[in-house]
Amino acid sequence: MKPTWSALLGVALLAVVALVVGLLVAGPKTVVAGPAAAGESSAAVAEPAAELAATTDEHPDIVLILMDDFSLELLRTMPEATKMAAEGATYQNSFVIDSLCCPSRAALLTGQTPHHTKVLTNTQNDPEHPVGGWSAFQRYGNLEKQFSIGLQEAGYTTGFVGKFINAYEASVDPDGNRVPPPKVPGWDSWNALLGGAYGGWGYQSTFLDDDGEVRLRHHPQPPTSATPAVKDAAYATNVTRDYALAFIEDHRDDEEPYFLEIAAYGPHSRLGRHYPGLETWFPPAFADQAPAGDPAGGNCGRFDCAELTLADLVGYDDDRQDNAPTYLHRGGRTSPAPAWRTNKVSLSAETALSQYRDRARMVQSIDRMVTQVREAAGDDAYIVLTSDNGFHLGQHQLNGGKGAPYDSDTRVPLVVVGPDVVPGERSQFVNNIDLAPTFLDIAGAPIPAYVSGSSFADTLSRTRLPGPRYAFFEHTYAKAHPGEVDLDRGSGGTIDIIPSYIAVRGSQGLLVRFDLDKSWKGTDHAYELYRYDRPWEDRNVFAEDHAKPYARELMRRLEAYEGCAPAVCRALTR
């Protein structure tokens, strides 16, 4: 049995006492070289949590549960997630660097910004010079920068279950045979569910054979005559759960610690295909679905589905006429810029409400998985619950989707339970690029200098520890290409009208610099600035506020962020 983290803290406290009385001589902090840290000091300083972990060869198990397109209003419907939030650390200002699946996941896996990973979109666009998807992730050296490799070097057994990177798929050889996707370094156990899992049923997953080679496993769609229990046994979230519990069962009593990432497909929408007779774009497990003819029925967790209303979607249907961006000219003069939110508002209130309730039904199977994972992993494991991005569903008059710099899209839950985690809310700003260094820090592993995020491990046991005060966002426009999974046609489809932007958010507001030129050859910069005197981006106040101190500070940081080296990126959040 592994020693508890409390025991490790006891060891550390004894070391501190010895230092105070002069019985221990402390050397300088450990420094390590960070590969591929071009233009960056090659030294990375070990954080205090790493020094604590270094007092013993034993480190805590860690589980990351990553949801897909999870909007914050859904959290309150989930009984176990709500309990987890009450018992653990909750980060109220938790954001993602890019509110789009593939760039966000690449950033999470490496701790780098999209302008460092060069994974900018979901699909490759240009096969010779890919800008997104699996092609870009592997082309630009990101495989070697995954935090899982650092964990392996620190003695961890690593496992991955669920959705990986967009376009990581099987191929077909000249004879028509399905060929597994490539092996991904950094993972000792590899159960990726491939893209067919968006629909909930009928997909393939991977596993490693005895020789460590990637193989395919088919999960057929049960017939419509099957019982609901048989259908749900094949549901993607439940298969993800089964893989996860098997990994924990195999490794929880090992002498070596483990790290497990569980990446659920829910509550992402299905693509075109759907289970026969199940027309919703957000397919829940059969156990949670609304009965035929009862749109307010089904399982919405802690609430009756009828209690969920559009009033829960903060800023729903807010008029966009006062949100058009603003040009900034020499001397501080401003003028109106063309509106970019020009889509037809096609998402009806009836459809928005139906989809909101289906999304709430969808996350209940994830919540049950959280319960079982917590029970299996035990109290001595860190368990982290978050999402790759948020989701708007009628807010900003953008119909449904993500990719925007606004609160609905960029803010995600971040809840952590585990040994010696002090319950309560944290107010510091956290970005998903901070997860990789935090995992390495907890494991006592060095944090490479190429990492753009900062560890928040110390705040798990110290609720009022000062932390970052700003979060940055970046997003790259791309015309939708075949294979794009985030058109969100079922809820309006607006991902490819959102321009490229960089943005900075602090306690006083959000500043966004859009590039309205979609040619990729020129630039046409215009700004939006929002004060959070209302809890959503109600009105662009750039013209009236851009010269005020808070806005000037946001602008200073925004300009310094563009193309920043990792150390500069980290410093700008403070």
What do these coordinates show?
By secondary structure, the protein is of the alpha/beta class. 25% of the residues lie in helices and 18% in strands. The strands form 7 sheets. Strands 8-5-11-3-14-17-4-18 form an 8-stranded mixed sheet, sandwiched between helices. Strands 19-20-21-22 form a 4-stranded antiparallel sheet, covered by helices on one side. α9 (236-251) runs parallel beside α10 (349-377).
Q: What share of residues is helical? A: 25-40%
Radius of gyration: 23 Å
Residues in β-strands, percent:
15-25%
Which secondary-structure class do the elements indicate?
A: alpha/beta
**Mean pLDDT figure:** 90
What strand line-up does the widest sheet have?
Answer: 8-5-11-3-14-17-4-18
- Tally of DSSP helical segments: 15
Sheet having the most strands? 8 strands, mixed
Distance between the terminal alpha carbons, to the nearest Å?
40 Å
Report the count of strand segments. 22
- Which descriptor suits the 3D outline? globular
- State the low-pLDDT regions, or none: 3-48, 50-57
